[in-house]
């Protein structure tokens, strides 16, 4: 008889299970193998589309990279009218400021222009140029660092050799500065920012280069305009002082109200006493 609804399914007879088991396994394995082959074919189609997309995306990036150039040029001309724009931008950037010692900041006050140039095919790398006014630290007018990917995808970098003026090599003085700073300021100064130009140990993961290219260069104004935290703290302290003064005035007003209340009570008691005397008479 057929089991009623809700009843557990009846197991097949053992003989049927045993006789069909091997055949079922063979069918299952064959189906799985066919499915794997079909998945591989579909995956090849997906990979082909991804390659096609990459080529088209690259063409779009190259097109708009060229269209941006006149605007970058115009922006550089306008930035040149603002004294200390780039040093302020770097100091206000949390990751870059962590790499700057006091003397680095002094040297970067002579930095007048920064340019980031992606190579034409974009994939093969980029160059960052730093333009300096005449300064007491080095002879160079331009310091550059380039990042390259060769055809096999291996990264490398190269940079301008800094021609330091006598006794002004900040990369050699950084360790001495650290010792003085640790005694005076109870914390170590970072290694000089300018050691970045001589460090080619990990060109494929150059954090500073990537930050300048991908974060600062697209919109440096947002970091230049970051408010000075010291000024904000000062304003906060002034606000606190104002609040204290207001609270003091409120306390005085409350004390005055209490005194007035006490005087009113005394007057009321005096009036009641006079009324009582009048009644006795």
Which key terms come to mind for this protein?
four-stranded antiparallel sheet, alpha+beta, 4 strands, Arylsulfatase, C-terminal domain, 281 residues
Task: Give an overview in words.
With 281 residues, this protein is an alpha+beta fold. Among the domains are: 45-81; 82-231, Nucleosome assembly protein (Arylsulfatase, C-terminal domain). It has helices spanning 14-79, 85-92, 94-97, 102-108, 170-184, 207-216, 221-224, 229-280; strands at 111-118, 125-132, 142-149, 155-159. It has a four-stranded antiparallel sheet with strand order 1-2-3-4. Strand 1 (111-118) and strand 2 form a beta hairpin. The longest helix has 66 residues, at 14-79. The protein is elongated, with a radius of gyration of 39 Å. The termini are far apart. Mean pLDDT is 79; it is low at 11-17 and 177-187. Residues 1-35, 149-198, 227-281 are annotated as: Disordered. One of its GO terms (biological process) is nucleosome assembly. This is Protein SET. It is found in: Cytoplasm; Nucleus. Residues 13-35, 160-172 have a biased composition (Basic and acidic residues).
List strands and helices in order, with pairings.
Layout: H1 14-79, H2 85-92, H3 94-97, H4 102-108, E1 111-118, E2 125-132, E3 142-149, E4 155-159, H5 170-184, H6 207-216, H7 221-224, H8 229-280
Antiparallel strand pairs: 1-2, 2-3, 3-4
**Molecular shape:** elongated
Number of strands: 4
CATH fold topology of one domain: Arylsulfatase, C-terminal domain
The Rg value, from CA coordinates, equals: 39 Å
Please outline the major beta sheet.
Answer: 4 strands, antiparallel
What would the average pLDDT be, to the nearest integer? Answer: 79
Subcellular location: Cytoplasm; Nucleus
InterPro entries: NAP-like_sf, NAP_family
Keywords: Cytoplasm, Nucleus
Protein name: Protein SET
